[in-house]
């Protein structure tokens, strides 16, 4: 079976973890600090503050914006549930603007129409490894006076006009096991703003600046040196990993370009895609539907994944929620029924890629 993701660590990671174990410093310490410096360099920000998950990165970023009840965060409905849960944790109200099919991310024109006098934060999600249209979203945020929180959980090292995902506003990253860069569980908030970075550091450590001196009601959002030991060695080879993903994506695009009924993902002009996922859309007139394609791939030992099967607000626990405003988002609703991600990860061999192409081609023949 060719799996949708592959998790493996090199001897460099094994050595680093062992070194940490033997040092006795397993909680947050010098390795977290080194990981922060290296990660800030990858993203291109002055600061990076490590936390213990992508979800807590989002929660911490929204916390330092001091949102008040009634404030709204405008985001995409086509995302992982953590985006919405973090907004609700902040006490703010979530509003959703529809996506575009080309990048699966916030459509700037629709977003502009959804901004109102309560909107405080614009929260794009850089889905599948490609950034949202920051060239249009940043001017919108500026005109409307909105803070920008980027959910870059899937976009380590992605760029828009050469500028890193997570360097436009407050950048929130995840190092969950299946992400491009992993510490098993972990997260990071990136920013150029020294005062914001300082508040994040105090917040993640119980609101404590010095021992038993509390400045705010804080949390335990700390990453451990054990986690950082997984991430640190990956930093130096990360761009090579992305290069493998990029090669695989190119081979998939070439092998599948003439398959009728299949819309292939592409790297849009000016955007550096890090190919966290390779997600196809079944055209409305495709000979088979998405679930049939997934089943037929599975029959041919090719794994696939649906990210995400429904818009994020389309669950009973959110439908009646007083702080979830679910206006219709027809593009996202339709794409959620028609999208399928196929393997693109760096561990694929050329043989694997050929097998995936052959399996998709066979499967798409009605
Ligand atoms: C993974 C992910 C998160 C949450 O990250 P965790 O580390 O799992 O908490 C948030 N948003 C998106 C888009 C993600 O893919």
UniProtKB/TrEMBL annotation:
Q: Which CDD domains match?
A: AHBA_syn
Q: What keyword terms does UniProt attach to this protein?
A: Aminotransferase, Pyridoxal phosphate, Transferase
Which Gene3D superfamilies does the entry link to?
Aspartate Aminotransferase, domain 1, Type I PLP-dependent aspartate aminotransferase-like (Major domain)
Q: Which Pfam families match?
A: DegT_DnrJ_EryC1 (PF01041)
Which EC number(s) are documented for this chain?
A: 2.6.1.-
Any idea which GO molecular function terms this record carries? Answer: transaminase activity
Database matches in InterPro entries: DegT/StrS_aminotransferase, PyrdxlP-dep_Trfase, PyrdxlP-dep_Trfase_major, PyrdxlP-dep_Trfase_small
Q: Which cofactor does this sequence's record say it needs?
A: pyridoxal 5'-phosphate
Give the similarity note. Belongs to the DegT/DnrJ/EryC1 family.
The protein's name: DegT/DnrJ/EryC1/StrS family aminotransferase
């Amino acid at each position: 079976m060719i799996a949708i993701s592959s998790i493996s660590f090199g001897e460099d990671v094994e050595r680093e973890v062992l070194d940490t174990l033997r040092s006795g410093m397993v909680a947050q310490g010098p390795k977290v600090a080194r990981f922060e410096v290296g990660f800030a360099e990858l993203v291109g920000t002055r600061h990076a503050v490590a936390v213990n998950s992508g979800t807590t990165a989002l929660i911490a970023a929204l916390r330092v914006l001091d949102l008040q009840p009634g404030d709204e965060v405008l985001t995409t409905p086509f995302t992982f549930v953590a985006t919405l849960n973090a907004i609700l944790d902040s006490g703010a109200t979530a509003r959703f603007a529809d996506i575009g099919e080309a990048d699966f991310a916030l459509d700037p024109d629709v977003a502009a129409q959804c901004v109102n006098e309560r909107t405080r934060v614009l929260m794009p999600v850089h889905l599948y490894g490609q950034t949202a249209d920051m060239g249009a979203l940043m001017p919108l945020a500026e005109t409307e006076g909105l803070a920008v929180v980027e959910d870059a959980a899937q976009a380590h090292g992605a760029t828009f006009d050469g500028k890193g995902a997570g360097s436009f506003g407050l950048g929130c990253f995840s190092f969950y096991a299946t992400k491009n860069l992993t510490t098993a569980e972990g997260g990071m908030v990136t920013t150029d703003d020294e005062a914001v970075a300082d508040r994040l550091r105090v917040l993640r450590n119980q609101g404590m600046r010095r021992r038993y001196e509390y400045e705010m009601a804080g949390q335990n959002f700390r990453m451990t040196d054990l986690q950082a030991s997984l991430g640190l060695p990956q930093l130096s080879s990360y761009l090579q990993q992305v290069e493998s993903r990029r090669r695989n994506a190119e081979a998939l695009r070439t092998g599948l370009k003439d398959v009728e009924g299949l819309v292939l993902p592409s790297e849009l002009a000016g955007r550096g895609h890090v190919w966290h996922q390779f997600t196809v859309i079944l055209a409305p007139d495709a000979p088979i539907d998405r679930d049939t394609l997934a089943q037929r791939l599975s029959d041919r030992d090719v794994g696939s994944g649906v990210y995400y099967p429904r818009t994020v607000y389309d669950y009973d626990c959110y439908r009646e929620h007083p702080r979830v405003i679910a206006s219709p988002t027809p593009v996202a609703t339709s794409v959620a029924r028609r999208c399928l991600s196929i393997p693109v990860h760096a561990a694929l061999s050329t043989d694997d890629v050929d097998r995936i192409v052959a399996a998709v081609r066979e499967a798409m023949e009605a």
